[in-house]
Amino acid sequence: MSASPPPTEPVAVVTARGEDRIRGGHPWVYRADVVKARAAGGDTVVVRSPRGRPLGRALYSDRSQIALRMLTAGEAPAALDLWRARLASAIALRRALDIDATACRLVHGEGDLLPSCIVDQYGDYLVVQALSQGADRMLPALVGLLEEQLHPAGILARHDVKARELEGLDSAVQALAGSVPPLVTVREGRIEHEVDLWHGQKTGLFLDQRENRAAARAYARGRLLDCFSYHGAFALQLADRCDRVVALDVSEDAVARIAINAARNGIATIEARAANAFDALRDMERARERFDTIVLDPPAFAKNKAAVERARAGYKEINLRAMKLLAPGGTLVTCSCSYHVDEAAFGQIVYEASVDARARMAVMEKRMQARDHPVVLGVPETYYLKCFIMRKLA
Ligand code: SAH
To answer: How far is the CA of 277 from the centre of ligand 1 (A)?
Structure first.
């Protein structure tokens, strides 16, 4: 027998369009599709159709454009046991992937049916991000479940992110359990990284590129250029296949870390340079330099829809120059982590770059973010990272 929720349970009523989205399996309902809400920001609410039918339970936000993030369908409850079971299956998925690294993403929000919750593992430590009011409300419970299931030495909140600002939440970086040292050592394949979980970009490492680095390694040879290198993760992973490596990043701090990482791993062939990649690519093209392998892993040029046109120009320029710098038979590994530039659009930009560069490129692999960052069918927002591996035909 399905009991109807007690009258005190918070409720949100959605429009017919909102109902259609939910029935289509999309976890988000925008504010414009919420007719009325009897709830406070952060509540878990019962979602009802315009006719009053229960559509499921969701995390409610009174600030962001995404008002509802669905947790369950129909009359199913969304109590702590649901969170416990979903966390356990997220962890089980990572264990089944047999990841050759001591750092990975354990919970990828909507991709693990734990909306707006991120948990990354770095050895004995965990980094969490609660990216909505509802996730923030659940955070103490989530920390308890993480301790129960993983027994970490420390759990750090990296709440210094824009998404929390949009939700009206604080931006504190703080240990929520145990203690977290300034640097943590993790391994990815044969490479060791010293990671600053407190201040590093993202939660310390670009975990989403792990499988793309491993894939790129199979093609790497000769002279390698790693643009937008950050702490050198691609350069370090590919170095043993190459004769010489140039790793570029605009940040002096990042470049210093590339050198430290190279020394730590006993790699002497990496030259780390602080430079704006746009300038450096142009200068190297003028100087008629040649590379056999080039990696382009820029930051998201399009952070929103309005920025897409400028982003297209940026992606096209770096790809065009890289294709010119590439020796015949060489490999280009080109990435975009802008959700607003989808795979088809990115393919078109890269194609246009090849026409202008007069380079014939063969696509060897079209890749995505690593499998510990699951992409959900029908939820395009979960697919953000594109990585094409291409060979320049002689
Ligand atoms: N490839 C890295 C991640 C790169 S993140 C990895 O696998 O870990 C993007 C990097 O680009 C950041 O480190 C940022 O400092 C750098 N960056 C941003 N704009 C740049 C520019 N114009 N030229 C060079 N580097 C830039």
So the answer is: 9
Q: What is the DSSP string of 314-340?
A: HHHHHHHHHHHHEEEEEEEEEEE--TT
User: What is the chain's Cα-based Rg?
Assistant: 23
Integer Cα distance of 264 and 232 in angstroms: 12
Sign (positive/negative) of CA torsion 107, 109, 110, 114? positive
Residues 16 and 34 in one domain: yes
Which atom of ligand 1 is found nearest the CA of 299?
9
Find the Cα–Cα–Cα–Cα dihedral 106, 26, 303, 168, rounded to 10°.
-80
Ligand 1 atom at minimal distance to the Cα of residue 206: 8
CATH number for position 112: 3.30.750.80
Q: Which letter does DSSP use for residue 188 in this model?
A: E
Please work out whether the CB of residue 30 comes within 6 Å of at least one atom of ligand 1: no
Cα–Cα dist 127/323, whole Å: 38
Residues counted in the chain: 394
CB distance 127 to 197 below 8 Å: yes
The response to whether residue 136 sits with its C-beta less than 6 Å from ligand 1 reads: no
User: Which residue pairs, CB below 8 angstroms and at least 24 apart, start in 135-142?
Assistant: 135/59, 136/42, 136/164, 136/167, 136/169, 137/42, 137/43, 137/44, 137/59, 138/59, 138/83, 139/176, 141/80, 141/83, 142/83, 142/87, 142/117
CATH number of residue 53's parent domain: 2.30.130.10
Q: Which 3 state secondary structure label does DSSP give 122?
A: strand
Ligand 1 atom 10: the closest Cα is on which residue? Answer: 228
Neighbours of 297 (CB within 10 A): 24
Q: How far is the CA of 206 from the centre of ligand 1 (A)?
A: 11
CATH code at position 274: 3.40.50.150
- Residues 109-131 have a mean pLDDT of 98
Q: Which of 53, 73, 93 is the last residue of a domain?
A: 73
Whole-prediction pTM value? 0.95
Average pLDDT of every residue of the chain: 96
- Asked which of 8-12, 263-267, 365-369 is least confident by mean pLDDT, the reply is 8-12
Interacting residues of 287 by C-beta distance below 8 A, sequence separation 6+: none
d(CA 316, CA 107): 33
Residues 6+ apart with CB under 8 A from 284: 225, 321, 325
Strand ranges inside 255-383, DSSP E: 270-274, 291-296, 326-336, 361-368
